[in-house]
């Protein structure tokens, strides 16, 4: 198994836990890789965590924000993610640091349980698209003006909103991903 590690770089504890993950994973015969910055800090091989990388799983070490960042990698290559919680809430990062050995053991034994989550994709004309597992927020840039938001679902026109913004949420719940349109305050989501 090849595991890509995504680390919250501002938390020294995240690097300590990542080193523990690398050591334990190697003892199980797993290969651990990361992006260039993380790989240098952990003394492991750096890789582009994308198609053709051979990555089987992404491990996020930090808080829910780190899990959301790791999910972007995982969605692009269609692999699962597990998060080691070093944040305050741990809503998405559900493995505690003292459970890391057990988690790697479950991966080794093939007994871990994968829970699929719904994702949401939003595209904004002239900006591109983004995917969220919790929500996508479209918000105005200028105060005291409304934004016009034309909403289409599966390319079918749905409704036009004139509002301060709009939150599109999955059952996971509204929490973190954010985007805004500064061009003409009109967005298609």
Explain what you see:
- By secondary structure, the protein is of the alpha/beta class.
- It is 25% helix and 33% strand.
- The strands form four sheets. A five-stranded parallel sheet has the order 3-2-1-4-5, with helices on both faces. A three-stranded mixed sheet has the order 11-8-12, with no helix packed on it. A three-stranded mixed sheet has the order 10-9-13, with no helix packed on it.
- The chain is elongated, with a radius of gyration of 19 Å.
- The two termini are 37 Å apart.
- Residues 175-189 have low confidence and may be disordered.
- The chain contains four helices and 13 strands.
What's the helix and strand layout?
Elements: E1 2-7, H1 12-27, E2 31-34, H2 36-42, E3 45-46, E4 57-62, H3 64-77, E5 81-85, H4 100-109, E6 120-124, E7 128-132, E8 135-139, E9 147-153, E10 156-163, E11 165-169, E12 179-180, E13 186-188
Parallel strand pairs: 1-2, 1-4, 2-3, 4-5, 8-12, 9-13
Antiparallel strand pairs: 6-7, 8-11, 9-10
